[in-house]
# Entry
Amino acid sequence: MTATTTEPAQPTPASALAIPPKPRRVAARIASWAVTAVILLAFWDIDLEWDKVAQLPSDLVHYSALMFSSPDWSMLGEAALQTWRSVSMAWIGAILGVVLSTLLGIPAAQGVGPVWVRLPLRWIFAVIRAMPEVLIAIIILTVTGLTPFTGALALAIGGIGTHAKWTYETIEAVPPGTAEAVRASGGSLTEVIRWGLWPVAAPELMSLALYRFEINVRTSAILGLIGVGGIGAMLTNYTQFRQWDTVGVLIIVVIVVTMIIDAISGAIRRRIMEGAKVRGVERIH
Amino acid sequence: MDNTAATQRPEAGDHASPASGPWPITLDDVTVRYPNGVVAMKNVSLEIGAGEMVAVVGLSGSGKSTMIRTINGLVTPTAGTVTVGPHRISRLKGAALRRARGDIGMIFQSFNLADRTSVYRNAMVGRFSHTPTWRTLLGLTTAEDRDIVMRALDSVGMLEKVWHRAGALSGGQKQRVAIARALAQQPAVMLADEPVASLDPPTAHSVMADLADINADRGLTVLVNLHLMDLARQYTTRMIGLRAGEVVYDGPAASATDADFEQIYGRPVQQRDRLGQQ
Amino acid sequence: MTAADAVAGERSQLTIPPRPRTWPRAAAIVAALAAFTILTTIPAIGGVELDFASIARNWTNGADRIVQMLTPDWSILPRTWQPLLETLEMALVDAAISAVLAVPLSLWAARPTNPNGVARRAVRFVLNVVRAVPDLVYATVLVAMVGVGTLPGIITLVLFDIGIVVKLVSEAIDSADAHYMEAGRAAGGTQTQINRVTALPQSWPAIASQVLYSLELNVRISAILGLVGAGGIGRLIDEMRGFYRYDALGTIVLEILVVVIAIEVASNLLRKRLR
# Structure
């Protein structure tokens, strides 16, 4: 801060204050105009059928009434079975995905694997991240066919992209102290991982694993679209048949099941992370 | 240090005070019990005259922060009444409470500025109670409000930083912007909750001097929470001592003895109870 | 036994505090997880049949596909420009629309900016419902409603974006210091005034950062929306899949990869500037 600010201001006549001119941030202004222009251009160029947009509200009301005014609850049993299939895909996919991600993510962490291991692994993760799960499933179904197992494998492999990234980021975020202590007492690399990194990173990694399951529950419904079964497949079929009373039931089931799973998994995650905090300050109660 | 408010008279004084002049503050048998069971104030009764400069002294947890917040209704008393000028604060709610708060300026220990926005917009917060919500929402300000804000900033010597980000200022500058924000309300009463506790000694003295000037030149009733005895003695005329939510001292500030302070603190006076001279 | 004996005894043998018995709980958790896992693998009740044998049998099929994808057919490239542009435009338009809608909703869903618990919980509940529906499910149903085109894709992405942006921004506001609110309240401001003048600029980095993140996600998602007829490059993916043109698919995937990484880099740069 400059000294001038604490100098007494000159006695100013009430009519004329020396108000400094408002700074013009030319670069910021140009940038914001450019962004606005690009967005407007996109709006203008995109093939938006405005008559459809105008009709949208009445369409939404119309179809919502078809779906939810008298849902066909007799489909609930089939829906429950297909939901369990989706949840199973999500769970198996999460287990396989987390195991693969942990195995691949740990060597990709700085301070664990050498550069020539780390960089290729990170590139593979980035490529998988850019691949939609649906595309991965399209490849896998040539091996295992149109089965829920294909869905689980697609979730597992598709999950590696983000989950392995989270894994190495979590490990890199571990304060170096513990690992150094193990190394200082003559620990090998596996011992450093087992006693230095794992105890600190495990709660976070477990919490992320559960989160992966939550994500998979949503993605498994998407995979149903290409025919690997589950609630997504059922939903696609009945939407194509335009059986709106059944579609309504399925949407309600998806929402309820997803929210219940989110709530349970979220509660467990909180317990894991709070347990970790308590352990961090060494309070045993 | 600076003494800018004094140079503003008489024009700024006329401009920055509400027509009604300074207001008295009355607390009548006020008790505050928080939901967790803590009793922060016990049957406190006080009369503060219009235009007085009062220090409220006590250790942290003595209830002085709670007391100052009952005066502008940020804390509602469990029992008793709080009256500021024409407003029966402890009974007010909603729009009436907001209007009353508009007449009561307040500054805080941690300045409470929005760091990511400009000094100007922070000071404009002081005009909230005089501005319809839809105008604020659309970002419309009147020429009059703008003038009041600029004058308030000028009176604390912060006008040249008007377009700077609040977060980029030093602690003393931030507190000055906070004072300008309160002055922009054109208040009748000024409350200050530990206004210098986050500042270095020279800055603390100059901010206290600013508050004394606001009292002397604009004639506002000023109530300052402090935990340092020498600041209370030097800058205020009356001192109220709080301990465990009860008034244990009420008298002239200048003549308060170390024994009086020991009674307020409930322990011998220590080095850290004094700020020291500039 | 004398006192001296007791001291000597204490010295010779350590008094080890009893080890807390954590294993029964750990065993119960492991057993529960194992039971759940087994239930998910029983095909009769809808579980997944773990057919690892088929991998051993048919892995060459998958490897062939990957090899085909890794030998991209560049001749498809000119045909991808138009759908790719459409994908990018959809991503941008959606990020813009959802930013406009997400700002008031985020302030509404966060505790410091909305002290009214009932209203806050109502918004959060609606958003939880919106987030519970997977993006392609929205797209499928909307395509059936309003027909093939970009409109169902745009609505899908807006719903998706609002769900995550509002959640993440309101959580950021919840966890940030909101001292400045007290000053606005003390000055007699309404919550709307306080939010507009102070909370909005304070939350701006969180909002901008999450909108950029949603832009990244939009590109990824809109790449597959075309599979159900909701516009963008997914349309081409679906077509190439139908013809088993894995070499062309490889080209498209590579293209998406380049675009996604470019947007990630650009938005990381922007994020740094916004701090």
The domain at 68-274 of chain C is CATH 1.10.3720.10 (MetI-like fold).
